[in-house]
Amino acid sequence: MKVSLNWLGDHVDFSALSIPELDDLLTFAGIEVEGVEQRGVEIDRLVVAEILSSEKHPDADKLSVCRVDDGAGPSKPRQIVCGAKNYAVGDKVPLALPGCQLGGGFEIKEGKLRGVESLGMLCSGSELGLEESSEGLLILDPGAKPGTPVRELFERDTIFELEITPNRPDCLSYLGVARELAALAEKPLRGPAHHGDSTTPTRAAKDGEIRVSAPEACPLYTGRWIRGVKVAESPEWLKTKLLAAGLRPINNIVDITNFVLLEMGQPLHAFDLAKLDGGIHVRLAGAGEKFLALDGETYELGPDDLVIADAKKAVAIGGVMGGEDSGVTETTTDVLLEAAYFDPRSIRRTARRLGLHSDSSYRFERGIDPRQVAGASDLATKLILEHAGGVADPELLVCGEAPAPPAPVALSNDRCRAVIGCDIPDAEIERILTALGLQKGKAAWEIPTFRRDLEREIDLIEEVARVYGLDRVPSRTVARFAPASKADAAHDFARRLQQRLAGLGFFETRNLKLVSGAQLADDRATTHRGMSPIRLKNPLNDEQDHLRTGLLPGMLACARRNRNLGNGDLRLFEIGRVFTATPKGDEVEHEHLALLMTGARTRRSWHDAKPSALDLFDLRAALESVVPGLNFVPADGGQRLLGAVSLEVGDGKKATKLGLAGFLPPDRAREYDLDAGPVAVAELNVKKLAGALTGEVRFAELPRFPAVTRDVAMLTPAALSHGAIENFFRNLDQPLLVDVTLFDRFLDPSGEKLAADRKSMAYSLTYRAPDRTLESAEVDAMHAKVLDSLKREFPVEFR
């Protein structure tokens, strides 16, 4: 937002403050200053000239030969060849004399254009840096004296480029910024202090005048008829203010509505009354309804879009942009002045869906002050009557009512001092809050309607702190060592997981905790049983209206973005919080770890031209590196995962379920553009994972005695998994059995070599004693007991 210091000076006296001091004040107030620009005309040999005559160039249809008075008098005119057409004899215009340096180092010299001598150049506003673009010469004040340096006609100004945070829509106006600076500089507000109060009588609108059929999107709509106006060029002071704010002057009616928008932060719109058929109807658009906007584009609207319509057609997209067919032009004589309060969510949804953003939608999206609607209409009406003439209806027509004001907030001055850490007097606390627009009540502070971000006591304390000045709070060095807490332990554990996975070649992702309902549907497999997702009461938009219940949808979106950018070989992980609600409505937070692997196992090279694809076994290896002793138990992944396995630690009776792993089904992979190869994913509960790994780590010396290996081949049911057999061996009470490896597996779906419901499994079992060399007979006896236990546990047949 561009803010003119001269315009701010209408509200607060800054004459005693330098530009750097104002910059610091804004920065300490939490308003970022992105840039400072000095405005004005500081060009030598640039003077006022009066056009005495103008004739067509003898050899160029688009050029004219002008004679101008440059201050030497009409008897000594200066000849200039000019291409502009917007001037008349007697106009005062800027004249760049030979030797004048314009922007870009362009020097004016005497010369000939198509054979006619030209002793200088008549200038446009853009050539002087006063306008972004110009269609002709800059016409100066008729009272300007020829020969006067042009710099004397244009007041110097300083333009601040401010970045306003979304929670401070009140600062999207000159009055709002001035209020902040007045509080910071301890100066009173002055000048036209129109704070929103209206003195115009109001009347409830009738159906034939104004009707609102979508009150949830437009709680308050007002209109005022002004007849007999004369549309013309705006006065110089108004054009100067708009140009300083980066807006192009159009005509006096439109410029006044833009001035009020900048001055008060209240968007307005003026309709040409002659172009309206009947009264105003504020409604939702029909499906596929077409609308021609002021930008010349035609938009297809939907039932979620709010429109301002007459009896036959939409004439504006509510809070976003007016229509081409109902705008004010030079022929307009009667106008309808609209001032309204629109629901921020409705405006945000429409503006984003259409990709149509304006100064009005920018303010409505963030929330304007509903109390100032009538006052802004009053100010605009007053200015229109002053500069365009006409007669205004004596009453303001109103439909609906403004939202309720914010609730009062109690503040303890003692707590304020304790939190800030500074002994601020009661009088100073009250001065600060009063200067910011708050009013002290009997038991609490009344919050103004333009500061709906102030909801709690700590919010008021923050306001006091930033205005008082954080640089004035004394620093204290406190030597205090807090004992380790559960939060510290959880943080350290998560950090170790990050380091371990990064060491394995994984890259960490960070995704938003806010997701859409569609993403929740895609994440249904990770939602806890008996739990439900949590929907926000006041979401910023429909794409961020729920808290996430799992991490995988966000990671899949990251994988899609990487794949679309040419990075298809991915090892990703994320550690973050997920949220669910119990049947009783209690919110529950869990910290999860999610992993995703897809693409090639190794980089393509001369010795591996076609590397194999990453799969679930690679994911298993990574998980086992992080979670020693992890078991993989077949599980039902629903429609979301293929080959799903439950991730568990502990034996079968006391197993702790940590999460789920598996492959993304092909149809789901295609939804994320990840169908080039298998996508292995897993998601675990970090708290349960930490609890399963709390035991002490004991290091053992390298074995000094040889191991003895025995192989066993067996026929098993086809449904019996290797994981179940592996878990059996792992939990077997046989300390000398130190390793079990599956080295062969055979299935024959045809049933020719082996029954289709059977499979062959071959394992290598390794035995070793830590204190002696095992005898062959001893190993044979142990091996026989192991096989006997295996046969009792499973229906296997040894070969």
Features:
799 residues; alpha+beta; Phenylalanyl-tRNA Synthetase, Chain B, domain 1; Phenylalanyl-tRNA Synthetase, Chain B, domain 3; 6-stranded mixed sheet; 40 strands; 26% strand; elongated
Topology overview:
Elements: E1 2-4, H1 5-8, H2 19-28, E2 32-39, E3 46-56, E4 64-69, E5 78-82, E6 92-96, E7 101-102, E8 106-107, E9 111-113, E10 116-118, E11 121-122, E12 157-163, H3 174-185, E13 202-204, E14 210-212, E15 220-227, H4 236-244, H5 252-264, E16 268-272, E17 280-284, E18 290-292, E19 298-300, E20 306-309, E21 314-317, E22 321-322, E23 334-341, H6 344-354, H7 359-366, H8 373-388, E24 391-392, E25 396-400, H9 413-420, H10 426-435, E26 439-440, E27 445-446, H11 457-468, H12 486-503, E28 507-508, E29 514-515, H13 517-522, E30 546-547, H14 552-564, E31 570-581, E32 587-598, H15 616-626, E33 631-634, E34 642-649, E35 656-663, H16 666-671, E36 679-685, H17 686-692, E37 708-717, H18 722-731, E38 737-747, E39 758-767, H19 776-793, E40 797-798
Parallel strand pairs: 13-25, 14-17, 28-31
Antiparallel strand pairs: 1-12, 2-12, 3-4, 3-6, 4-5, 6-11, 7-8, 9-10, 15-23, 15-24, 15-25, 16-23, 17-20, 18-19, 20-21, 21-22, 26-27, 29-30, 31-32, 32-36, 33-34, 34-35, 35-36, 37-39, 37-40, 38-39
Helix pairs in contact: 4-5, 5-8, 6-7, 9-11, 10-11
